[in-house]
């Protein structure tokens, strides 16, 4: 029974729903990367990679750059990016395309497995690759083993690259380049792989609208895209001046 009707019919003395307070949600993250910042980050990653290769344990430092470029070019989540195989890309088309159809899932104490769908099954999609993402995919293909199921981001032993290890590698880069990132005016405390997806969503929404941004991200509901990923501009489009002048006159 609707609580308002219950009060009206004297079934309950007052409406308990009326006095329930909304849950306090964490503040929405609002930082995105500009093209200039992305270029600067790529340069820092390349330099950091060369330093790291000269000492310490070996790791696929190039994966930081390639992963960033693919995530920025496709809107893929980190798990979806690390799950890519040879069979998922088609470099013969113009532009090349990439199928987002799986994701790597970390299991506490049990390693990593590939789930044969993205976060949601309905989010399977094929995305055209912009130039920087296509270049990154070509680099990964050159490094990958043969066979359609060869991973584009394998570990040194050919196993699945875990999301945890990729994010740990990214955190190491951020920690060791914090001052340089701050000089680029990057919001370091909000810098994770999520910033790539948020950047893509915002840029596409601003240039082509929320519908295309939502489709690129694989969302069934445009409200999810706007509420969780798109960063609204503070500057209102000055076209409002033309509209209001036309209505009210000079």
What does this structure look like?
The protein has one domain (35-221): Intergrase catalytic core (hpI Integrase, Chain A). Helix content is 46%, strand content 8%. It is globular and about 70 Å long. The strands form 2 sheets. Strands 1-2-5 form a 3-stranded antiparallel sheet, with no helix packed on it. It has a two-stranded antiparallel ribbon with strand order 3-4. It has helices at 3-8, 35-53, 62-74, 78-82, 131-143, 163-176, 178-183, 194-208, 210-217, 222-228, 239-248; strands at 89-90, 97-100, 103-107, 111-115, 125-128. The chain is mainly alpha-helical and 250 residues long. Helix 3 (62-74) packs across helix 5 (131-143), helix 3 (62-74) runs parallel beside helix 8 and helix 8 (194-208) runs antiparallel to helix 9.
Could you say which structural class the secondary elements and strand pairing correspond to?
Answer: mainly alpha
Can you tell me the residue ranges where pLDDT is under 50 for at least 5 consecutive residues? none
Principal-axes geometry comes out as globular
- Neighbour order of strands in the largest sheet: 1-2-5
Largest sheet: 3 strands, antiparallel
Order of helices and strands: HHHHEEEEEHHHHHHH
N→C terminal distance: 56 Å
CATH architecture type: Orthogonal Bundle
Write out the CATH superfamily name.
Intergrase catalytic core
